Amino acid sequence: MTARVGVVTFPGSLDDGDARRAVRLAGGEPVALWHRDTDLHQVDAVVLPGGFSYGDYLRCGAIARFSPIMENIIAGAREGMPVLGICNGFQILCESHLLPGALTRNDHLHFVCRDQKLRIENAGTAWTSDYEAGQEITVPLKNGEGGYVADERTLDELEAEGRVVARYLELNPNGSRRDIAGISNAAGNVVGLMPHPEHAVEPLTGPTTEGLGFFTSILKRLVTAR
Amino acid sequence: MARVVVDVMLKPEILDPQGQAVQRALPRLGFEGITDVRQGKRFELELDGPADEAALARIREAAETFLANTVIEDFTVRVES
């Protein structure tokens, strides 16, 4: 018995293929979801992949957030369905108000593409339970608008409630407030992450295989829940 | 027929690295005396009817939900004659 994890393809998505591959390597059944569809095809969880949905027009994620498929994803997420947004997916989750704050242009204005060291701060979310709190991992990071911003009260709340899921180590690559690389909602089922764990799941193509934990975490949770 | 303009600007407390880059380039081009630049967006909306209070209320709703991200941006709505 395995679990079905949907991966949405928007016009301009780039990392949907790698996300489906990561789900499969973790032992799950990847299900391709189309942005114009409204049917979630009985998936147990959803990944919103990286890329440049709708050309990043207006704001990153702003148009994707109103895609037909998003209505059911937003409703499902509010009822506890696990959702992981990576990079552009993180931007879509913020635009959907499933996560607080926003992602803004990198403070140095350059597109950044590097292998980035992170610390998993919260190993209690649906997507990080296969890590230890405090574990350091290295996965690719590639973004132009990855600077996480929120007002001080929201940042304090995220810290106090343990909702900072991952933090940049050694170098803050984009000016994110408090070195934040990823956050979760209060329930822990919705996680947004700027770096790309789906690109670090195989020795041939990734700097490490340390990204796989996000996908094995959700698989274990879904299979145990049955 | 009427034209309504929606201006969207980053909130003052949000860093605007694009505006800063423009500001730094100005003196190099000989434009002195400009101490700060903030960059924003301007939307020109053509209406099929008059810009009455009902139409403006809908445009404010569109600006609030879509044209601006009010977490980081402010907007203004005005009728252009």
TrEMBL record, chain A:
NCBIfam families: FGAM_synth_I, PRK03619.1
Assigned EC number: 6.3.5.3, 3.5.1.2
Any Gene Ontology CC annotation: cytoplasm
Encoding gene (name): purQ
Organism: Mangrovactinospora gilvigrisea
UniProtKB keywords: ATP-binding, Cytoplasm, Glutamine amidotransferase, Hydrolase, Ligase, Nucleotide-binding, Purine biosynthesis
SMART domains: GATase_5 (SM01211)
GO biological process terms held by the UniProt record: 'de novo' IMP biosynthetic process
Role: Part of the phosphoribosylformylglycinamidine synthase complex involved in the purines biosynthetic pathway. Catalyzes the ATP-dependent conversion of formylglycinamide ribonucleotide (FGAR) and glutamine to yield formylglycinamidine ribonucleotide (FGAM) and glutamate. The FGAM synthase complex is composed of three subunits. PurQ produces an ammonia molecule by converting glutamine to glutamate. PurL transfers the ammonia molecule to FGAR to form FGAM in an ATP-dependent manner.
Stored InterPro entries: Class_I_gatase-like, PRibForGlyAmidine_synth_PurQ
Entry's localization field: Cytoplasm
GO MF term set: ATP binding; glutaminase activity; phosphoribosylformylglycinamidine synthase activity
HAMAP family listed in its UniProt record: PurQ
Recorded catalytic activity of this chain's protein: L-glutamine + H2O = L-glutamate + NH4(+); N(2)-formyl-N(1)-(5-phospho-beta-D-ribosyl)glycinamide + L-glutamine + ATP + H2O = 2-formamido-N(1)-(5-O-phospho-beta-D-ribosyl)acetamidine + L-glutamate + ADP + phosphate + H(+)
Full protein name: Phosphoribosylformylglycinamidine synthase subunit PurQ
Subunit text: Part of the FGAM synthase complex composed of 1 PurL, 1 PurQ and 2 PurS subunits.
Pfam family, any one: GATase_5
Pathway the protein contributes to: Purine metabolism; IMP biosynthesis via de novo pathway; 5-amino-1-(5-phospho-D-ribosyl)imidazole from N(2)-formyl-N(1)-(5-phospho-D-ribosyl)glycinamide: step 1/2
Catalytic center residues: 87, 196, 198
TrEMBL record, chain B:
Compartments in which it is found: Cytoplasm
Annotated SUPFAM superfamilies: PurS-like (SSF82697)
Top-level taxon of the source organism: Bacteria
Transmembrane segments: none
Pfam families (alphabetical): PurS (PF02700)
Entry's EC annotation: 6.3.5.3
InterPro entries attached to this UniProt entry: PurS (IPR003850), PurS-like_sf (IPR036604)
GO cellular component: cytoplasm
A GO molecular-function annotation: phosphoribosylformylglycinamidine synthase activity
GO terms of biological process kind: 'de novo' IMP biosynthetic process
Coiled coil ranges: none
Reactions accelerated catalytically: N(2)-formyl-N(1)-(5-phospho-beta-D-ribosyl)glycinamide + L-glutamine + ATP + H2O = 2-formamido-N(1)-(5-O-phospho-beta-D-ribosyl)acetamidine + L-glutamate + ADP + phosphate + H(+)
Pathway: Purine metabolism; IMP biosynthesis via de novo pathway; 5-amino-1-(5-phospho-D-ribosyl)imidazole from N(2)-formyl-N(1)-(5-phospho-D-ribosyl)glycinamide: step 1/2
UniProtKB keywords: ATP-binding, Cytoplasm, Ligase, Nucleotide-binding, Purine biosynthesis
HAMAP family according to UniProt: PurS
Described function: Part of the phosphoribosylformylglycinamidine synthase complex involved in the purines biosynthetic pathway. Catalyzes the ATP-dependent conversion of formylglycinamide ribonucleotide (FGAR) and glutamine to yield formylglycinamidine ribonucleotide (FGAM) and glutamate. The FGAM synthase complex is composed of three subunits. PurQ produces an ammonia molecule by converting glutamine to glutamate. PurL transfers the ammonia molecule to FGAR to form FGAM in an ATP-dependent manner.
Subunit structure: Part of the FGAM synthase complex composed of 1 PurL, 1 PurQ and 2 PurS subunits.
UniProt similarity note: Belongs to the PurS family.
Designated name of the protein: Phosphoribosylformylglycinamidine synthase subunit PurS
Taxonomic source organism: Mangrovactinospora gilvigrisea
Gene it is expressed from: purS
